[in-house]
Every structure is written in structure tokens, then in C-alpha cells.
Amino acid sequence: MLPQEISARLKFLDDCAHLLAATAPATSRYIMSTHHALMFETNIEPTELQMMRACGACGTIMILGWGATLEPGRKAKGKQRVEAAEPLKTMVYNCGICSRKTRISTGIPKPPGRHGKSISKSISNLKSSSTLTIPQATTIGKSNKKRSRSKNKGGLAAILARNQASQVPSSGYGLDLIDFMKKG
């Protein structure tokens, strides 16, 4: 077969399997298995998207929560774990029909780990240095609060005074909202 014919047939099989996934899941699995077999025969590697969309073993269309589940990758314990320069996070897709697990790397490096000893040292350093600065910070904070309150009150009073001075007495009884706000 020509490469154009193969790509057209693969696209047709993929589209058919996805269209039949909800109404005829067994037929959909068979068509997707045929799709995977054709890819294997022609030595075409499946992309990550294709691996995420369908199970490579049974052909089930992986719809999260319906025919598949998703979980973040876990570190291997003991001797199996291989330390890389920048380990990547992986997502594990579990097929609900055949229980096959498909691991796909997300390309996002894991955050760098810290050692417990260095964290405890930095916490003890922070505690010793912060005990001296705490009383000074609270007194400065109180004076800042008082200053901001007085500034806000002065600012609001000034705005009201300007508005009252700029207003021309209107017709009516001569009462305004400011008259009701005054005490006494």
C-alpha cells in the first residue's frame, strides 16, 4: 500500500472507532485493535495523543471516568528507581476493560527536592533572627494604622467639604443628604 492509502485507512479506522465508542463499544474496540495492528504492520509508532486516546492492548477508547482512569505517576521504590538529571512527571492511564496501564511523560520536570536537615537548619535560623525584629515591627505597624486612619478621615471630610462648597443651593426645602448626615 502507498503511504497515502495507509494514512487514509488509519484515519478512517480511528474516526469509526471514536464514533462507535458510546453506541457499540465492542465494535469500537475491534476497529481500534485493527487500527493498532495496521500501525504495527507498517512500523508506524503511535504518538502520545494516540496512546492517551485508546488502549494499546484491547483498543478501548479511553474516556476518563467512563472507560479509563488517570493518576499521577508514582516513584519506584528501592533499587528500581533510577535517578536522572531531571526526572519528569508521568501520568498513568488505566484501562477499565483490560486494566492495562499506559505511562506518558508530561515533559514537566519535577520540582527539586530538599533535604530535611537543610530545612530544619533554615527554620532554626529564621526563629533566632525573627525574635529580635518582631516587637519593632508591631510598633511600626500600629503607628502606620493610626496614620492611615487619620489620613482617610481627613480625606473624606475634605471631599465632603469641597462638594458642599461647590454645590449651588437647589430649589426645594434647602435640605440635602449632607444635612441629614450632620450630628446634632
UniProtKB/TrEMBL annotation:
Biological process terms in GO annotation: tRNA processing
The organism's lineage is: Eukaryota, Fungi, Dikarya, Ascomycota, Pezizomycotina
Q: What is this protein called?
A: Uncharacterized protein
Basic residues compositional bias, start-end: 143-152
InterPro entries on file: Rpr2/Snm1/Rpp21
GO cellular component annotations of the record: nucleolar ribonuclease P complex
Q: Name one Pfam family in it.
A: Rpr2
**Region Disordered: start-end pairs:** 134-154
- Top-rank lineage group of the source organism: Eukaryota
